[in-house]
Design brief:
Blueprint: H1 13-24, H2 30-33, H3 78-88, E1 92-96, E2 105-108, H4 110-116, H5 120-123, H6 138-149, E3 154-162, E4 168-179, E5 185-194, H7 196-232, H8 238-261, E6 267-268, H9 269-277, E7 286-290, E8 293-295, H10 297-316, E9 326-334, E10 337-345, H11 358-369, E11 374-380, E12 383-390, E13 396-398
Parallel strand pairs: 7-9
Antiparallel strand pairs: 1-2, 1-5, 3-4, 4-5, 6-8, 8-13, 9-10, 10-12, 11-12
Helix pairs in contact: 7-8, 7-11, 8-10, 9-10, 10-11
């Protein structure tokens, strides 16, 4: 839509002044008083004859602001230039009249029509509230209303507005009061700028920064676990050491796959246990039960390694060495503290003295350093009982 310049309707200025007066008194509609974009204070477009705005006599006279930069001599076309600048500006602008009920729009430029998609006849006489919609925050609306009631001369904020076709845009709104020489409030000038693309770009940039930080954090955690595996692994020969490290790194890799499938959101504790048990040949002798919990990503890998190490230790040194041995794993949560109870039961372990070997030492190190928790080892009726507590309530969330 091409811009429609403000042009005159007739040389009879009194005719236009009468129409303006009738409009203010409510005896003439806004659409009858103005056929174009400019609104109540524009001139009708029935004739190409321009009427200098300096000839118009407003009911309340006021002097406009002096130009911030201009030629030293008095610009004879200053008012006409100001009107042209408003109409041709690519910044959407409206003027409202707070002296009328509901502070209606009395002037809108072409950029405002292009931004909102409304026709001039649908804009003039409306309060700017018609751009608000379901997603507009009430707090933003109240902030504007409060500022207007208090007579604030300058208001600036961003809020969600809607075009005629229903599409939303983030509106960088600036409102300035126009006052008479006596301080009487005459008009509000409001500019609108669509900053949706800018805010989305900023949000994307911030999201990318968070993602990079998260990747860095996860990488450091994984490297710390690998470092622990390498440093704490023991074997009688090189081949045994290689097998020990590969087994643990494989466990770490499976946990990573689970996290990737869940898009690094959360992982169910039961799923984590099932995955680690799937690596064992004696999985049918392992039972587990507990609350339905979702673990946050940062504890999934270290906890998965802990479970794997306990299973391996039971298979090589503990209850699963004998056919009658079983393992029972249970967990619960109370006051944000996750508690896991590991029980190994076998007839041959009844008289076996408690000896905390290298595997439990690794588990203790990971629990303390990676999970910030505690590990306690004891015996009850000949069974090996290991209790792990993770006190940080932010390490997990209920489903």
């Amino acid at each position: 839509m091409d811009a429609e310049p403000a042009v005159g309707a007739s040389n009879d200025i009194s005719q236009h002044l009468n129409k303006l007066e009738l409009t203010r008194r409510g005896e003439l509609s806004c659409s009858d008083a103005a056929h174009g974009t400019i609104g109540q204070h524009c001139l009708l477009k029935e004739s190409p004859t321009e009427i200098p705005m300096s000839n118009l006599q407003y009911r309340t006279a006021f002097c406009g602001d002096q130009p911030a930069a201009a030629e030293d001599y008095d610009l004879p076309d200053r008012r006409e230039l100001a009107l042209v600048a408003v109409e041709r500006s690519r910044t959407a602008m409206v003027v409202t009249d707070p002296r009328q009920p509901h502070n209606p729009i009395i002037l809108a430029n072409q950029a405002f029509i292009d931004l909102t998609g409304y026709h001039s006849s649908e804009i003039i006489g409306q309060n700017c509230r018609f751009l608000q919609g379901q997603g507009t925050r009430q707090s933003d609306v109240e902030q504007i209303s409060t500022a207007l009631v208090l007579g604030t001369d300058h208001i600036e904020l961003e809020l969600l507005n809607y075009r005629k076709d229903g599409t939303a845009f983030i509106n960088a709104l600036m409102i300035s009061a126009v006052r008479s020489n006596k301080g009487e409030l005459l008009y509000y000038i409001a500019s609108q700028r669509n900053v949706t693309a800018e805010r989305k770009a900023e949000e994307l940039e911030a999201s990318e920064r968070r993602l990079l930080m998260e990747i860095d954090h996860r990488t450091m955690n994984a490297l710390a676990l690998v470092q622990s595996i390498v440093c704490l692994s023991r074997a009688e020969n090189v081949q045994g050491l290689s097998n020990s490290i590969n087994r643990r790194v494989r466990s770490l890799g499976l946990t990573h796959q689970i996290l990737a499938k869940r898009k690094w959101q959360s992982v169910g504790l039961e799923l984590l246990v099932e995955t680690q048990c799937g690596l064992m040949t004696d999985a049918n002798r392992i039972t587990f039960e507990g609350a339905d919990l979702e673990l946050l990503p940062r504890i999934v890998q270290p906890l998965g390694l802990v479970i794997h190490e306990l299973l391996s230790n039971a298979q090589v040194h503990g209850a699963l060495m004998r056919d009658d041995g079983i393992v029972r794993l249970s967990w619960s949560i109370e006051n944000g503290v996750l508690a896991l109870s590991w029980n190994e039961i076998s007839s041959w372990m009844v008289k076996r003295p408690l000896n905390e070997g290298f595997g439990l030492q690794m588990v203790r190190t990971v629990v303390a350093q990676q999970l910030g928790g505690q590990l306690n080892v004891g015996q009850h009726d000949g069974a090996l009982v290991i209790t792990i507590t993770i006190p940080d309530s932010t390490t997990l969330s209920p489903r």
